[in-house]
Amino acid sequence: MLPSTPESLTPIVLQSMANTADPRVKELLCSLVRHLHAFVLETRLTEAEFEYALGYLNAIGQATCDTKNEAVLVADLLGVSSLVALLNNADHHGESDAALLGPFWRANSPSLEPGASLAAPGTPGIPLEGSGLVQDREGRPLAGVTVDIWHASPSGLYENQDETQPDMNLRGRFTTDENGRFRFRSVRPAGYPVPVDGPGGVLLRAQARHEFRPAHLHFMFSKPGYKVLITQVYADDSEFLHSDPTFGVTRRLVGQYRVESRPGGDVAVFDHCFTLLEGEMVFPHPPIP
């Protein structure tokens, strides 16, 4: 078979994949071809636009470095990361505690004692006292869960982006107690702009979208016999709560912060409940070293 029209090419390409041994790989690639070809036909993609798109993909790889994963960022900005997280972690209500990983998670953050601070001495900001409950889908508390926490500074930068912060600042791992609870201290994070100096910024500017994420804390929960839960909890008073450029905010992930006046000054207090689902404990590949 040889193509004679634009529409005649798709079945020929699909036929070339007929001998793909892995059925899942075959399903994914055939679906990708069908949707890509349909997109080209529907939009009547020009050669100049095709050339630009290839250059854009190349630029994503060239912009990725030790401090930023541009591929993850662009997937976030297109809503794909959040869609995958919600699709693969829905409970029996069809909702999920999961959220996108983001481009700044680092593996092997320091293990800390209950109530210890993520913030290195001298880190400025409003003190934060955080705690949480980890439970299974039946509401039973889960002991021995590893809780990996990381967040940006009050200036809106993660430590790997900021030479003034010590290595692994505002990162740490805790373990839930026999009641499924954990607690930590830190400084209250601020909202921040996603990096806009690469292809992600090109995308946002083309769509006249802002780059500011609402303030949030990142969490990753792991325990053998349960799926790794990757999530974020957002400040309920953030002005960007309903316009997150990465589409990461869901109803379940809006946290309740309160500020308490104490003799030494104001302290932000935070508590949240998280639910783990049964399954295989598989960790993501760190987007940065």
From TrEMBL:
Q: Which UniProt keywords apply?
A: Dioxygenase, Iron, Metal-binding, Oxidoreductase
Checking Pfam families in the record gives:
Dioxygenase_C (PF00775), Dioxygenase_N (PF04444)
Family (UniProt)? Belongs to the intradiol ring-cleavage dioxygenase family.
Is Ligase given among the entry's keywords?
no
Q: Where are the transmembrane segments?
A: none
Q: Which InterPro entries match?
A: Catechol_dOase_N (IPR007535), Intradiol_dOase_C (IPR000627), Intradiol_dOase_core (IPR015889), Intradiol_RC_Dioxygenase (IPR050770)
Q: Name one GO molecular function term.
A: dioxygenase activity
| Intradiol ring-cleavage dioxygenases domain boundaries | 102-263
Q: Which cofactor does it need?
A: Fe(3+)
PANTHER family xref list: DIOXYGENASE, PUTATIVE (AFU_ORTHOLOGUE AFUA_2G02910)-RELATED (PTHR33711), INTRADIOL RING-CLEAVAGE DIOXYGENASES DOMAIN-CONTAINING PROTEIN-RELATED (PTHR33711:SF7)
Residues spanning the signal sequence: none
The protein in question is named Dioxygenase
**Residues in Catechol dioxygenase N-terminal domain copies:** 22-94
The yes or no answer to whether the keyword Oxidoreductase is present is yes
Recorded hits in SUPFAM superfamilies, A to Z, give: Aromatic compound dioxygenase
